[in-house]
Design goal:
Trna Endonuclease, Chain: A, domain 1, five-stranded mixed β-sheet, two-stranded antiparallel ribbon
Amino acid sequence: MGPSEQDFQHELLHSTKLNNKHRGELAELAFMRKAAALGFSVAKPWGESERYDVVLRSGKVFWRVQVKSVRSKSPQRKHYRVVTTNWLKFPYTADEIDFLVAYIFPEDTWYVLPVSAVENRKMLFLSPNSRRSKLEKYRGAWNLLRTASVEPAPADPPVRGDSRELPGT
């Protein structure tokens, strides 16, 4: 086992001792580090009143990202259960987030899920490397955060007398 693998194993062991709030904060920090390393601009909103945890910029597009994590799966299950609600148990909608990113601590694995895959769902079942999982296509799908980087069409300049003309011009 190399030094980085030992570091990861140590972090994983430590993360199991954290409460849910602290583990969630660690997952957000890990997400921001990973996204920045991939070339995204990252911003953390002030406070905790928004339904998203992080704002990501890719080109001219800004994404609202909710980060969730899971530390283990129950021995009776072959999948990880990721809760996709807030503390009031309300599921996320497209009015609140653009992506939900789930981090599976023991697998060191990220799922980048568009809101359409999680909207109005209270829980996701993730099975890394399973051919039967409908959500497996989102494992490591960081490219989804880049694809909608469409430049808006340029607006026509205002013409004198046009209703779009700025006052005092």
